[in-house]
Amino acid sequence: VTLDLVLVGFGNVGRRFVRLLNEIAPRLAKEHALETRVVGIATRSRGCAHGADGLDGAALADRVEGGGRLGRRESTRAFLRAALRRNAAAARARRLVVVEVTTLDVERGQPAVDHVKMALAGRAHVVTANKGPAAFAYRALERTARRVDRRFLFESAVMDGVPVFNLARAALPGVTVDGFRGVVNSTTNYMLTAMESGDSFERALATMQERGIAEADPSLDIDGWDAAAKTAALANVLLGAALTPHTIEREGVSADAGAAVAAARAAGRKLKLVASAERAGASVRGRVRLVELPATDQLAGIDGPQNALILQTDLLGEISIVQRGSGLTATAYGLVADLVAIAREVSPTRATRPQPTRARRRRSPSPRGRRRS
Ligand SMILES: NC(=O)c1ccc[n+]([C@@H]2O[C@H](COP(=O)([O-])OP(=O)(O)OC[C@H]3O[C@@H](n4cnc5c(N)ncnc54)[C@H](OP(=O)(O)O)[C@@H]3O)[C@@H](O)[C@H]2O)c1
Asked: N or C end of the chain: smaller count of CB under 10 Å?
């Protein structure tokens, strides 16, 4: 299947995503019968590009990084409307995907929520790395996606491409998640680790900004908003909650944390910014708090930019997911994984049929009349 992609946002993640698609195109074609074409890109200040026959995403990424523009300026709504109209045939054939990679807004999750709504209304699938839509409007967007028979996927929104949502969706049938706790913000975790070794708050933050890991507006990280948005998204999806970042009890990491870090260290403990949620009667309570953990706690060993999430489940007990490597490639990969999930639905016979290993292929007799794939 060929998926046609409309990118809304072409920053660090969007540019890494189009390059990664090129890099792993042979693998996607061979293992998943998936090809992709970028047919539109919108930015806020660098103009927009449409290209029904496919745009050269990597060349456009080079151009933007060199200070150039994509094309003429359009409002994003007008761009999306035009892109959905121009690609209506692909949308009807379930081959159109809007890739939402604009900046996070923690006030209302906008305009990303509206971008997702517009895309679904135009019968496009949506994949996004933006936490806003799942954190502010998961239920409504998921309901709309089901009604129009399209997918709304956001694996990259939490722990980059490490499968958290896809794990729960695809690999835990019949299991109820009762709660979770985790370290989900790389910037603050790196800062707390650096402060344990005597770095100042300011120096630790500057390092994360230099490495491009801190959000464009670092207050999103250090005031706990990024972690609160992730907590809301996780709780909404895994626990069926209807939380927003504003209904999460929230604490951040300030310069004052230095003393608490030192005190914890002196006591052989660790200070961590822990995101958690659990059921409380019929509702769900979500929190982002600075917690002093004993050294034996799994989360105490998650240092630097690493992340971890521990799911509490009814049938499997605790399941821990640890992310040791992070970065733009991991985030871009999460978007690719979501595309593969969509391709499997669009063309289930080719994209989902397990590929037999060579050994199995030799051993198994070939059933008569089986079609070659
Ligand atoms: N960076 C990471 O490691 C990472 C990891 C996981 C998730 N995420 C999430 O992924 C998303 C993108 O991150 P990023 O690092 O790529 O951000 P970024 O570098 O700041 O890029 C954001 C892009 O969105 C565009 N944009 C913003 N508002 C727009 C609007 N209303 N209409 C059209 N385009 C708009 C910007 O255009 P201009 O360039 O013209 O401003 C820019 O191209 C964010 O939601 C972030 O939280 C990032």
From this structure: C
